[in-house]
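Protocol step 4 of 6: structure prediction from sequence.
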Amino acid sequence: MAQVIGRRQYDERSSRIVQNVLPAIILVDENINDAGFLAFFSKVPTLGTVQEKFSWDTDSFLKITDTVDGAVTGTTATTIQVDNPSYFNAGQLWQNSRTSEFYYIKSVNTSTSNIEVTRAVTALNSSGGTAAAAINDADTLVMVAPVVGETSSRQVSQTTTPSAVFNYAQNFRWDLSMSDRQIKREFENNDEMPYQLQKQLKEAQMALNRQFLIGERARYTDDEGQDVTITTGIKPVISSYTWNTGGTLHEYDFDEFLVEEGLRKGSRDKVVFASTNFILAISEMVKDRVEYTLPLGTKKSSVGIQVMQYQAPNGGRLMIVEDRFLSETQNGTAIGVDMTQLRRRIFSNNGRSGDLRIIPNTEDPDDMGTVSTLAGDMGLQYGAEEHHFLITGIQGGAKGRSIL
Protein backbone atom coordinates (compact mmCIF):
# COMPACT_ATOMS: atom_id res chain seq x y z
CA MET A 1 0.00 0.00 0.00
CA ALA A 2 1.41 3.39 -1.03
CA GLN A 3 2.13 5.77 1.87
CA VAL A 4 0.88 9.34 1.56
CA ILE A 5 3.65 11.79 2.48
CA GLY A 6 4.91 15.25 1.56
CA ARG A 7 8.31 15.82 -0.04
CA ARG A 8 10.29 12.60 0.00
CA GLN A 9 13.88 12.43 1.20
CA TYR A 10 16.72 10.61 -0.56
CA ASP A 11 16.41 7.30 1.25
CA GLU A 12 12.69 7.00 0.53
CA ARG A 13 13.38 5.97 -3.08
CA SER A 14 17.12 5.40 -3.10
CA SER A 15 16.64 1.76 -4.06
CA ARG A 16 15.17 2.92 -7.37
CA ILE A 17 17.98 5.22 -8.47
CA VAL A 18 20.44 2.89 -10.23
CA GLN A 19 19.07 -0.62 -10.09
CA ASN A 20 17.45 -3.10 -12.40
CA VAL A 21 13.77 -2.27 -12.22
CA LEU A 22 10.86 -2.43 -14.62
CA PRO A 23 11.40 -0.09 -17.58
CA ALA A 24 8.36 1.93 -16.56
CA ILE A 25 6.36 2.38 -13.41
CA ILE A 26 2.85 1.03 -14.05
CA LEU A 27 0.05 2.74 -12.19
CA VAL A 28 -2.61 0.49 -10.73
CA ASP A 29 -5.81 0.44 -12.84
CA GLU A 30 -4.57 3.05 -15.30
CA ASN A 31 -7.72 3.01 -17.38
CA ILE A 32 -10.27 5.52 -18.62
CA ASN A 33 -12.99 3.59 -16.75
CA ASP A 34 -11.46 4.90 -13.51
CA ALA A 35 -13.19 8.17 -14.38
CA GLY A 36 -15.86 7.10 -16.85
CA PHE A 37 -18.19 10.03 -16.23
CA LEU A 38 -15.41 12.60 -16.47
CA ALA A 39 -14.27 11.13 -19.80
CA PHE A 40 -17.66 12.00 -21.29
CA PHE A 41 -18.19 15.19 -19.30
CA SER A 42 -14.93 16.59 -20.65
CA LYS A 43 -16.45 16.41 -24.15
CA VAL A 44 -19.59 18.46 -23.45
CA PRO A 45 -19.73 22.14 -24.46
CA THR A 46 -18.28 24.70 -22.05
CA LEU A 47 -19.86 27.96 -20.95
CA GLY A 48 -18.24 30.77 -19.04
CA THR A 49 -19.54 32.33 -15.86
CA VAL A 50 -18.41 35.64 -14.34
CA GLN A 51 -19.22 34.67 -10.78
CA GLU A 52 -19.12 31.50 -8.71
CA LYS A 53 -22.91 31.10 -8.76
CA PHE A 54 -24.41 30.37 -12.16
CA SER A 55 -28.07 29.88 -13.06
CA TRP A 56 -30.17 28.52 -15.88
CA ASP A 57 -33.90 28.15 -16.54
CA THR A 58 -35.84 24.96 -17.08
CA ASP A 59 -39.33 24.81 -18.53
CA SER A 60 -41.80 22.17 -19.63
CA PHE A 61 -44.94 21.82 -21.72
CA LEU A 62 -48.41 21.93 -20.20
CA LYS A 63 -49.35 18.87 -18.17
CA ILE A 64 -51.66 16.61 -20.16
CA THR A 65 -52.90 14.27 -17.42
CA ASP A 66 -54.46 14.69 -13.99
CA THR A 67 -56.26 12.54 -11.44
CA VAL A 68 -59.86 12.67 -10.19
CA ASP A 69 -60.06 13.36 -6.45
CA GLY A 70 -63.33 11.68 -5.43
CA ALA A 71 -65.85 9.55 -7.28
CA VAL A 72 -68.74 11.10 -9.23
CA THR A 73 -71.70 8.73 -9.26
CA GLY A 74 -74.21 8.69 -12.07
CA THR A 75 -73.93 10.28 -15.49
CA THR A 76 -75.43 13.75 -15.05
CA ALA A 77 -73.30 15.43 -12.38
CA THR A 78 -71.10 18.11 -13.99
CA THR A 79 -68.74 19.01 -11.13
CA ILE A 80 -65.50 17.00 -10.89
CA GLN A 81 -62.87 17.50 -8.23
CA VAL A 82 -59.30 17.05 -9.46
CA ASP A 83 -55.82 17.03 -7.96
CA ASN A 84 -54.40 19.91 -10.03
CA PRO A 85 -57.04 22.36 -11.26
CA SER A 86 -54.38 24.62 -12.81
CA TYR A 87 -53.84 21.97 -15.49
CA PHE A 88 -57.34 22.67 -16.86
CA ASN A 89 -58.62 25.61 -18.87
CA ALA A 90 -62.04 26.59 -20.12
CA GLY A 91 -62.61 25.59 -23.73
CA GLN A 92 -60.59 22.36 -23.60
CA LEU A 93 -61.53 18.76 -24.34
CA TRP A 94 -60.43 16.13 -21.80
CA GLN A 95 -61.02 12.39 -21.84
CA ASN A 96 -61.39 9.83 -19.07
CA SER A 97 -58.81 7.20 -19.99
CA ARG A 98 -60.79 4.42 -18.26
CA THR A 99 -64.28 5.11 -19.66
CA SER A 100 -63.27 7.03 -22.85
CA GLU A 101 -65.91 9.67 -22.07
CA PHE A 102 -65.07 13.18 -23.35
CA TYR A 103 -65.62 16.28 -21.20
CA TYR A 104 -65.77 19.90 -22.35
CA ILE A 105 -64.31 22.19 -19.67
CA LYS A 106 -66.73 25.06 -18.97
CA SER A 107 -64.97 26.64 -16.00
CA VAL A 108 -62.23 26.03 -13.45
CA ASN A 109 -62.28 26.91 -9.74
CA THR A 110 -58.73 26.67 -8.42
CA SER A 111 -59.75 27.46 -4.82
CA THR A 112 -62.03 24.40 -4.57
CA SER A 113 -60.11 22.25 -7.10
CA ASN A 114 -63.35 21.75 -9.04
CA ILE A 115 -63.94 21.82 -12.78
CA GLU A 116 -67.36 22.31 -14.39
CA VAL A 117 -67.85 20.22 -17.51
CA THR A 118 -70.26 19.23 -20.21
CA ARG A 119 -70.52 15.46 -20.04
CA ALA A 120 -70.12 13.13 -23.03
CA VAL A 121 -69.84 15.97 -25.56
CA THR A 122 -69.03 13.59 -28.44
CA ALA A 123 -72.34 11.77 -27.83
CA LEU A 124 -74.54 14.91 -27.91
CA ASN A 125 -77.24 15.11 -30.59
CA SER A 126 -76.82 11.42 -31.36
CA SER A 127 -73.30 12.00 -32.67
CA GLY A 128 -72.35 8.43 -31.91
CA GLY A 129 -69.57 9.23 -29.45
CA THR A 130 -68.88 7.62 -26.10
CA ALA A 131 -71.73 7.93 -23.61
CA ALA A 132 -71.40 9.27 -20.07
CA ALA A 133 -70.35 6.84 -17.35
CA ALA A 134 -69.76 6.98 -13.61
CA ILE A 135 -66.40 8.49 -12.64
CA ASN A 136 -64.23 6.66 -10.14
CA ASP A 137 -61.87 8.16 -7.61
CA ALA A 138 -58.32 8.28 -9.05
CA ASP A 139 -59.49 8.04 -12.66
CA THR A 140 -56.94 9.54 -15.05
CA LEU A 141 -58.08 12.48 -17.17
CA VAL A 142 -56.19 13.28 -20.38
CA MET A 143 -56.11 16.67 -22.09
CA VAL A 144 -56.83 16.39 -25.81
CA ALA A 145 -57.15 19.85 -27.43
CA PRO A 146 -59.03 23.18 -27.24
CA VAL A 147 -62.35 23.55 -29.08
CA VAL A 148 -64.27 26.73 -29.93
CA GLY A 149 -67.57 27.52 -31.62
CA GLU A 150 -68.23 29.16 -34.98
CA THR A 151 -67.85 32.62 -33.48
CA SER A 152 -65.08 32.46 -30.90
CA SER A 153 -63.67 35.09 -28.58
CA ARG A 154 -60.28 35.37 -26.94
CA GLN A 155 -59.53 32.41 -24.68
CA VAL A 156 -57.86 32.49 -21.28
CA SER A 157 -54.10 32.16 -21.72
CA GLN A 158 -52.47 29.13 -20.13
CA THR A 159 -48.70 29.00 -19.88
CA THR A 160 -45.97 27.56 -17.71
CA THR A 161 -43.39 29.60 -15.80
CA PRO A 162 -39.73 28.66 -16.20
CA SER A 163 -37.98 27.57 -13.00
CA ALA A 164 -34.59 29.02 -12.12
CA VAL A 165 -31.96 26.43 -11.18
CA PHE A 166 -28.45 27.19 -9.96
CA ASN A 167 -25.16 25.60 -9.06
CA TYR A 168 -21.73 26.78 -7.93
CA ALA A 169 -18.30 26.67 -9.47
CA GLN A 170 -15.81 24.88 -7.24
CA ASN A 171 -12.16 25.75 -6.76
CA PHE A 172 -10.01 22.68 -7.35
CA ARG A 173 -6.28 22.62 -6.55
CA TRP A 174 -3.48 20.07 -6.38
CA ASP A 175 0.17 20.96 -5.71
CA LEU A 176 3.17 18.84 -6.71
CA SER A 177 6.19 19.76 -4.61
CA MET A 178 9.68 18.39 -5.32
CA SER A 179 13.09 19.22 -3.89
CA ASP A 180 16.07 20.32 -5.99
CA ARG A 181 17.84 16.98 -5.57
CA GLN A 182 14.71 15.00 -6.26
CA ILE A 183 14.44 16.71 -9.62
CA LYS A 184 18.13 16.19 -10.50
CA ARG A 185 18.30 12.44 -9.83
CA GLU A 186 18.24 10.18 -12.85
CA PHE A 187 16.32 6.91 -12.79
CA GLU A 188 16.51 3.96 -15.16
CA ASN A 189 12.77 4.01 -15.77
CA ASN A 190 11.61 7.64 -15.72
CA ASP A 191 12.71 10.92 -14.27
CA GLU A 192 10.86 11.74 -11.11
CA MET A 193 9.21 14.99 -12.19
CA PRO A 194 7.31 13.83 -15.30
CA TYR A 195 6.27 10.60 -13.60
CA GLN A 196 4.89 12.33 -10.52
CA LEU A 197 3.17 14.95 -12.68
CA GLN A 198 1.47 12.24 -14.72
CA LYS A 199 0.39 10.48 -11.55
CA GLN A 200 -0.97 13.70 -10.08
CA LEU A 201 -3.01 14.29 -13.21
CA LYS A 202 -4.48 10.82 -12.83
CA GLU A 203 -5.32 11.46 -9.17
CA ALA A 204 -6.96 14.75 -10.13
CA GLN A 205 -8.90 13.05 -12.90
CA MET A 206 -10.41 10.53 -10.49
CA ALA A 207 -11.16 13.22 -7.88
CA LEU A 208 -12.97 15.38 -10.43
CA ASN A 209 -14.93 12.34 -11.53
CA ARG A 210 -16.06 11.70 -7.96
CA GLN A 211 -17.10 15.32 -7.43
CA PHE A 212 -19.09 15.59 -10.66
CA LEU A 213 -20.80 12.26 -9.95
CA ILE A 214 -21.81 12.47 -6.27
CA GLY A 215 -20.92 15.96 -4.96
CA GLU A 216 -23.59 18.03 -3.23
CA ARG A 217 -24.06 21.76 -3.74
CA ALA A 218 -23.03 23.94 -0.80
CA ARG A 219 -21.74 27.37 0.19
CA TYR A 220 -20.20 28.17 3.56
CA THR A 221 -17.50 30.16 5.35
CA ASP A 222 -14.57 28.08 6.57
CA ASP A 223 -12.58 28.49 9.80
CA GLU A 224 -10.30 31.03 8.13
CA GLY A 225 -13.21 33.20 7.01
CA GLN A 226 -12.95 32.18 3.37
CA ASP A 227 -16.00 31.73 1.17
CA VAL A 228 -16.19 28.13 -0.08
CA THR A 229 -18.48 26.92 -2.84
CA ILE A 230 -19.06 23.26 -3.74
CA THR A 231 -20.56 22.13 -7.03
CA THR A 232 -23.18 19.43 -7.15
CA GLY A 233 -22.69 16.20 -9.04
CA ILE A 234 -25.25 14.58 -11.30
CA LYS A 235 -26.49 11.86 -8.92
CA PRO A 236 -27.90 14.04 -6.07
CA VAL A 237 -30.03 16.18 -8.40
CA ILE A 238 -32.02 13.30 -9.90
CA SER A 239 -35.41 13.09 -8.18
CA SER A 240 -38.18 12.65 -10.76
CA TYR A 241 -37.20 9.29 -12.23
CA THR A 242 -35.58 7.02 -9.67
CA TRP A 243 -35.98 3.30 -9.02
CA ASN A 244 -34.69 1.11 -6.23
CA THR A 245 -34.92 -2.41 -7.63
CA GLY A 246 -34.62 -4.03 -4.23
CA GLY A 247 -32.22 -6.66 -5.56
CA THR A 248 -33.02 -8.23 -8.93
CA LEU A 249 -33.28 -6.22 -12.14
CA HIS A 250 -35.95 -8.01 -14.19
CA GLU A 251 -36.03 -7.53 -17.94
CA TYR A 252 -39.70 -6.54 -18.34
CA ASP A 253 -39.68 -4.28 -15.28
CA PHE A 254 -36.54 -2.57 -16.59
CA ASP A 255 -38.10 -2.01 -20.01
CA GLU A 256 -41.24 -0.60 -18.38
CA PHE A 257 -39.16 1.80 -16.28
CA LEU A 258 -37.29 3.01 -19.37
CA VAL A 259 -40.46 3.56 -21.41
CA GLU A 260 -42.54 5.14 -18.64
CA GLU A 261 -39.83 7.10 -16.83
CA GLY A 262 -36.15 6.80 -17.72
CA LEU A 263 -36.50 7.73 -21.40
CA ARG A 264 -39.67 9.76 -21.07
CA LYS A 265 -38.04 13.18 -21.24
CA GLY A 266 -35.27 14.56 -23.41
CA SER A 267 -33.06 12.51 -25.70
CA ARG A 268 -33.92 8.84 -26.10
CA ASP A 269 -30.22 8.10 -26.47
CA LYS A 270 -28.73 8.28 -23.00
CA VAL A 271 -25.38 7.31 -21.51
CA VAL A 272 -25.59 5.10 -18.41
CA PHE A 273 -22.67 5.34 -16.02
CA ALA A 274 -22.84 2.01 -14.31
CA SER A 275 -21.38 -0.14 -11.60
CA THR A 276 -20.45 -3.75 -12.33
CA ASN A 277 -23.63 -5.10 -10.71
CA PHE A 278 -25.74 -3.25 -13.29
CA ILE A 279 -23.57 -4.42 -16.17
CA LEU A 280 -23.72 -8.02 -14.96
CA ALA A 281 -27.49 -7.74 -14.49
CA ILE A 282 -27.92 -6.58 -18.10
CA SER A 283 -25.74 -9.47 -19.24
CA GLU A 284 -27.84 -11.94 -17.24
CA MET A 285 -31.02 -10.50 -18.72
CA VAL A 286 -30.23 -10.12 -22.40
CA LYS A 287 -26.64 -11.05 -23.16
CA ASP A 288 -27.60 -12.17 -26.68
CA ARG A 289 -29.20 -8.81 -27.49
CA VAL A 290 -26.52 -6.28 -26.55
CA GLU A 291 -23.82 -4.78 -28.73
CA TYR A 292 -20.33 -3.56 -27.86
CA THR A 293 -18.86 -0.56 -29.65
CA LEU A 294 -15.60 1.40 -29.49
CA PRO A 295 -15.15 4.35 -29.52
CA LEU A 296 -18.22 6.51 -28.86
CA GLY A 297 -18.63 9.92 -30.46
CA THR A 298 -17.57 11.71 -33.62
CA LYS A 299 -14.09 11.44 -35.13
CA LYS A 300 -13.36 14.92 -33.86
CA SER A 301 -14.58 14.34 -30.31
CA SER A 302 -14.62 10.63 -29.62
CA VAL A 303 -14.19 8.84 -26.32
CA GLY A 304 -11.92 5.80 -26.54
CA ILE A 305 -13.96 3.59 -24.27
CA GLN A 306 -15.96 0.43 -24.87
CA VAL A 307 -19.69 0.79 -24.40
CA MET A 308 -22.50 -1.73 -24.18
CA GLN A 309 -25.61 -0.74 -26.15
CA TYR A 310 -29.08 -1.70 -24.95
CA GLN A 311 -32.15 -1.11 -27.13
CA ALA A 312 -35.29 -0.03 -25.26
CA PRO A 313 -38.78 -1.02 -26.50
CA ASN A 314 -39.58 2.58 -27.53
CA GLY A 315 -36.54 2.80 -29.80
CA GLY A 316 -34.36 4.52 -27.22
CA ARG A 317 -30.77 3.46 -26.86
CA LEU A 318 -28.71 3.13 -23.71
CA MET A 319 -24.93 3.38 -24.03
CA ILE A 320 -23.66 1.67 -20.90
CA VAL A 321 -20.21 2.54 -19.55
CA GLU A 322 -18.59 1.24 -16.40
CA ASP A 323 -17.44 3.85 -13.92
CA ARG A 324 -15.05 2.12 -11.53
CA PHE A 325 -15.71 4.59 -8.75
CA LEU A 326 -19.35 3.49 -8.75
CA SER A 327 -18.28 -0.15 -8.91
CA GLU A 328 -15.97 0.22 -5.93
CA THR A 329 -18.11 2.39 -3.67
CA GLN A 330 -21.75 2.22 -4.84
CA ASN A 331 -22.12 -1.11 -6.57
CA GLY A 332 -25.68 -1.68 -7.73
CA THR A 333 -26.04 1.89 -9.02
CA ALA A 334 -26.68 3.10 -12.58
CA ILE A 335 -27.01 6.77 -13.55
CA GLY A 336 -28.68 7.52 -16.87
CA VAL A 337 -27.58 10.88 -18.24
CA ASP A 338 -28.91 12.95 -21.13
CA MET A 339 -25.57 14.35 -22.26
CA THR A 340 -27.25 17.06 -24.37
CA GLN A 341 -28.34 18.71 -21.11
CA LEU A 342 -24.86 19.00 -19.63
CA ARG A 343 -22.55 21.98 -19.76
CA ARG A 344 -19.22 22.54 -18.04
CA ARG A 345 -19.34 26.03 -16.52
CA ILE A 346 -15.96 27.69 -16.11
CA PHE A 347 -15.47 30.72 -13.83
CA SER A 348 -13.27 32.95 -16.00
CA ASN A 349 -13.08 36.72 -16.26
CA ASN A 350 -10.68 39.64 -16.61
CA GLY A 351 -8.05 37.55 -18.34
CA ARG A 352 -8.00 34.84 -15.66
CA SER A 353 -9.08 31.36 -16.66
CA GLY A 354 -10.89 28.88 -14.46
CA ASP A 355 -10.36 25.97 -16.81
CA LEU A 356 -8.25 23.11 -15.49
CA ARG A 357 -4.61 24.05 -16.07
CA ILE A 358 -1.06 23.46 -14.82
CA ILE A 359 0.61 26.51 -13.31
CA PRO A 360 4.39 25.99 -13.08
CA ASN A 361 6.79 27.49 -10.52
CA THR A 362 4.36 28.29 -7.73
CA GLU A 363 7.00 27.63 -5.05
CA ASP A 364 8.16 30.26 -2.55
CA PRO A 365 10.93 32.56 -3.85
CA ASP A 366 13.60 31.05 -1.55
CA ASP A 367 12.66 27.42 -2.31
CA MET A 368 15.43 25.62 -4.24
CA GLY A 369 12.91 23.03 -5.37
CA THR A 370 9.81 23.51 -7.46
CA VAL A 371 6.06 23.39 -7.09
CA SER A 372 3.63 22.89 -9.94
CA THR A 373 -0.04 23.59 -9.31
CA LEU A 374 -2.98 21.99 -11.06
CA ALA A 375 -6.00 24.24 -10.60
CA GLY A 376 -9.49 24.82 -11.92
CA ASP A 377 -12.63 26.76 -10.98
CA MET A 378 -15.66 25.14 -12.58
CA GLY A 379 -19.01 23.49 -12.00
CA LEU A 380 -21.67 21.26 -13.51
CA GLN A 381 -24.75 22.57 -15.30
CA TYR A 382 -27.10 19.58 -15.49
CA GLY A 383 -30.05 21.11 -17.33
CA ALA A 384 -33.47 19.68 -16.46
CA GLU A 385 -33.09 16.93 -13.85
CA GLU A 386 -36.04 14.96 -15.23
CA HIS A 387 -34.00 14.25 -18.36
CA HIS A 388 -31.80 11.93 -16.27
CA PHE A 389 -32.60 8.81 -14.25
CA LEU A 390 -31.18 6.84 -11.32
CA ILE A 391 -31.40 3.10 -10.57
CA THR A 392 -30.12 1.67 -7.28
CA GLY A 393 -30.18 -1.55 -5.28
CA ILE A 394 -29.16 -3.88 -8.12
CA GLN A 395 -27.72 -7.22 -7.07
CA GLY A 396 -28.46 -9.35 -10.14
CA GLY A 397 -30.54 -9.66 -13.30
CA ALA A 398 -33.16 -12.02 -14.68
CA LYS A 399 -35.29 -12.46 -17.80
CA GLY A 400 -39.02 -11.86 -17.70
CA ARG A 401 -40.68 -10.09 -14.80
CA SER A 402 -40.74 -10.48 -11.05
CA ILE A 403 -43.36 -12.77 -9.53
CA LEU A 404 -45.07 -11.17 -6.55
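Step 5 (inspection) to follow. Residues 9-29, 298-302 have pLDDT under 50 and may be disordered.
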